[in-house]
Amino acid sequence: MLYISTYSSWTTSIVGISLGIIYTKIKNRKVAKSKILSLSYLLLLFALPSAAILISGKQFKGITAAILGPLVKPLFTSGIGIGILGMSHNIGGIMKRLCENRYVVLMSNFSFSIYVFQMLIIFSKGTGSYSMMEYGVTQMFKSFLFFDAPVSIIVGVVGALIFEQPGINLQKNFLPRLTYGRGKQQD
């Protein structure tokens, strides 16, 4: 699907905007860490996305499907958003250290480049053809294994090295980093 309508994604946008507003309101406040806060944070971080996955794996009918269907995406994004919000206030513990690991950040930048460029690669192979494409299981597996995946990875690596990494370096060199609590800029 190349186009997702506004109506099908507005709930996740509202979750993101709401958590962004909460972040801007509390970003300079010191959050008192406690066992209850850390436990509830971890519970929300894992329980909300798990509940969304569990709900989406079931088959519902009628009014139940109409009620639960639209709640799956905001439920999942709420868990992830609360996780990011907690990590921004050093509540994350081991999850924060894991997500900020140098190799994890490098892998996420690399996978984002693959995500951005894979549409170009995968959909471009069908644009010049005016005949039906063969879609057997073996043909799709061969196409994925020998064309789609390798070319997407190569183009993703090149895109990360040419566009993304220089952009990150420019951001680090020219944008000031603020340290919260002191109010001074860090060089």
Attribute tags:
2% strand; 187 residues; two-stranded antiparallel ribbon; 2 domains
Number of strands: 2
From the N-terminal CA to the C-terminal CA, the straight-line distance is: 44 Å
Catalogue the unreliable spans: 182-187
- String of helices and strands: HHHHHHHEE
Shape: globular
Proportion in β-strands: under 5%
User: What count of structural domains?
Assistant: 2
Average of the residue pLDDT scores: 80
Structural class: mainly alpha
Tell me about the largest β-sheet. 2 strands, antiparallel
What Rg is obtained from the alpha carbons, in whole angstroms?
21 Å
Percentage of residues assigned to helices: over 70%
Commentary on this structure:
There is one protein chain. The protein is built from 7 helices and 2 strands; from the N terminus they run H-H-H-H-H-H-H-E-E. It has 2 domains: 6-99, no CATH class; 102-186, no CATH class. Helix 2 (35-57) runs antiparallel to helix 4 and helix 6 crosses helix 7 (137-174). A two-stranded antiparallel ribbon has the order 1-2. The protein is mostly helical and 187 residues long. The chain has helices at 6-26, 35-57, 62-68, 72-87, 94-99, 102-127, 137-174; strands spanning 177-178, 185-186. Residues 182-187 have low confidence and may be disordered.
